[in-house]
Amino acid sequence: MGMELAGILRFLASFAIMASIYAIFSMGLNVHWGYTGLLNYGIAGFFAVGAYASALITTPMPTGVLADYVDQAIGLDQPFLVGVLGAAIAAGLVAALVGLLTLRLREGYLAISTIGIAETIRLFFNNEPWLANGPEGLIGLPRPLHGLVAPRYYNYIYLVIVLAFLGIIYVAVERGIRSPWGRVLRAIREDEVMASADGKNVFMFKLQSLILGAMIMGIAGALYAHYSAAIQPGVFTPLFGTFIIWTMLTLGGTGNNRGAILGAFLVWALWSWSTFFISKVVPSGFQTRAPFIRYVLIGLVLVIVLLRRPRGIMGEERQVSRF
Amino acid sequence: MPELIVYGIVLGSIIALGSVGLTLIWSITDLFNCAHGDQITAGAYFALLAGSLFSQLGFLQGKVGPFSFNWGVLLGFVPAILLSAGLAILIDRWVYRPLRRWGATSIVGFIASIGVAWVLRGLIYIIWGADFHFYSTGLRPMLFLPLGIKLRTDEIFIIVVAWAAVALVYLFLKRTKMGKALRALADNPPLARVAGIDTERMIVWAWAIAGTLIAIAGVLYGIETQLRPEMGWIFLLPLFAAIILGGQGSITGALAGGLVMGIAQQVSTAWLVPSYKPAVAFIIMILVLLFRPQGIFGRRRT
Fold first, then answer.
1. Do the strands B142-145 and B149-152 form a parallel or antiparallel pair, or are they unpaired?
2. Residue A146 and residue A16: Cα distance in Å, rounded?
3. β-bridge mates for residue A230, sequence order
């Protein structure tokens, strides 16, 4: 019985780690879409940039036999926190570039452009093996504080680390959004023309929002990379990297950070537990197709929420500025 | 190089076909339909379903003339078009029409269309599996043209059918009363309503036309390559690029844009790995958006 309980706890810990990482992504998207009205359909691109940046910063250059099999442009062998910081900066820089190119476009065009950017980034990592080992990707990313406990208990340590990041980012975004700066973002979302008539530089505020949200996504990407300890371009697909996060935020409540977190936990539960239950009920000949039921579920949740409860479970919170 | 251009025309004809439907829906309902690519996939699989039904019944097995596919697939166009148009109309009724009724912004429809895309793709994976499917397994007859161009007979079929379908839609929109009503609705919805045009009925027809073009594009792409559940999604960027290149709402622009996208993607393989093709489409689209947002072939809207 004791063994079973320990097993359940470990399972819950690994679930909570991924859900919390997705909650961070979801808050990043909330900065973009929920507060500023930027249609970012390319989360997977910032996800990939953050994950790869941290991987290249924290792993050493391959030596010996490994060097025959692994190519990477740089390998700085720095600690975990430097990697996470680097991930945020790299994602922010990419966002600045993307923003300069696309933020003057109409909202629909921005969405299509960001899909394109995310796909281009994924294809780039896939087709340029000198950069980060092409389709095989990088393995052996360091896991912070891993010497502290036995490997089987490591997930608890990592969960604490992820929750710490989640808490810090939650507080930071809440403070930012309640500041005069955040009020301008919401004004832009509601009526861009009015905001610019009030003398706000709409483009600059949008750019700042895009960069801030992307840095949050970069951090989440790094947290994912060090958790799975291995990354390949195949991870950063439109569903797993972008649209599952849209479903999370939409379900939880666009414009509400607690909703963003709630949505991430609910949708990740649906995603990870549906496979488990589906594998129990479908006939064995059908097992290879069963995981795709999740595609249908994620899509259905998105459509049904938009049709039945467009404000999500929590709806937008009333924001009262503190200043 | 001439060979790549010819292959580009083949691919571009399919893109043109898809982009006409996309731009029609965009201009009439103000919806950027992200599920368009997956509807193309569905169209291709509908013909596969029809073809395999025919072969199980044991008729229509003979090859069509000099082409690689049998009569079952050719006749499969009919059920594929009907199912695809029906699917498009159903999706509109269940998802986009309620959103229009509540006066939701077109952006909400745009986000919902992503959900629709995943539902469709998931169903295709569940029904047909992740493996590649082919309309025919036999030899694919080749033609040897001047300039060292090798062209499959199927590819001539693709070009002819694609442009015949486009020409029919073009004539329909220009010459018939319903076509005129559709164009009026695209041009100025409030004015069209005042003139007594039944908007919702016209939208159903627009989806039927788009669904028809979608099915034809899907089957032709299936003949050109193979059927796989992601085949339509990779079209989405080139399709959007084509209509942006052509200028919003312009049918002829979308056609020209489609051809340009097809040729650009194929010619790029002379220098780049073929898997970069979607990136090529995307980069052209960004350049157009930045420097000529009204499109290369479009006129500036006043």
1. antiparallel
2. 18
3. A139
Domain limits for position A217:
20-234
Contacts of B112 in chain A (CB under 8 A): 302-303, 306-307
Q: Which residues of B touch A (CB under 8 A)?
A: 32, 95, 98-99, 104, 106-108, 110-112, 114-123, 125-126, 129-130, 233, 236-237, 240, 244, 273, 275-276, 278-279, 281-283, 285-286, 289-290, 293
Prediction ipTM score: 0.91
Tell me how close the Cα of B72 comes to any Cα of chain A, in angstroms: 27
Nearest by CB: A123 against B114, B122, B275 = B275
Instruction: Give the domain ranges of chain B.
Output: 26-229
pLDDT value at residue B66: 82
Domain membership flag for residue A40: yes
Instruction: Count up the domains in chain A and report the number.
Output: 1
pLDDT one digit per residue (tens) for chain B, 302 residues: 888 998 999 999 999 999 999 999 998 988 989 999 999 999 999 999 998 888 888 777 778 778 888 888 889 999 999 999 999 999 999 999 999 998 888 889 999 999 999 999 999 999 999 889 998 877 777 778 777 788 888 899 999 999 999 999 999 999 999 999 998 888 888 888 888 888 899 999 999 999 999 999 999 999 988 999 999 988 888 999 999 888 877 888 899 999 999 999 999 999 998 888 888 988 898 888 888 877 776 654 43
Size of interface A-B (CB pairs under 8 A): 125
Please indicate, yes or no, if residue A130 is contained in any of the structural domains. yes
Rounded to two decimals, the pTM is 0.93
Contacts of B104 in chain A (CB under 8 A): 306, 310
Structure tokens at A172: 């930071």
Q: Please enumerate in sequence order all residues whose Cβ is within 8 A of that of A26, keeping only pairs 6 or more positions apart, or say none.
A: A245, A248, A249, A252, A260, A261, A263, A264
Tell me if B286 and A295 make a contact (CB, 8 A cut-off).
no
SS3 at position B70: strand
The maximal CA–CA distance of chain B, rounded, in angstroms, is 59
Among the partner-chain residues A120, A247, A310, the one whose CB lies closest to the CB of B108 is: A310
Query: Contact at 8 Å (CB) between A159 and A9?
Result: no
Mutate which: A103, A125, A242, A303, vs B, most B CBs within 10 A: A303
Test A246 with B122 for CB contact under 8 angstroms: no
CB contact under 8 A, A127 and B273: yes
On whether the CB atoms of residues A140 and A65 are closer than 8 A, the answer is no
Domain assignment of residue A272, yes or no: no
**Residue whose token pair is 């025309």:** B9
In a domain, A30, yes or no: yes
Read off the tokens for A253. Answer: 């409540």
Burial B10-35 (b: 16+ CB within 10 A, else e): bbbbbbbbbbbbbbbbbbbbbbbbbb
Residues in B touching A101 (Cβ below 8 Å): 286, 290
Query: What residues are paired with A138 via a beta bridge?
Result: A231
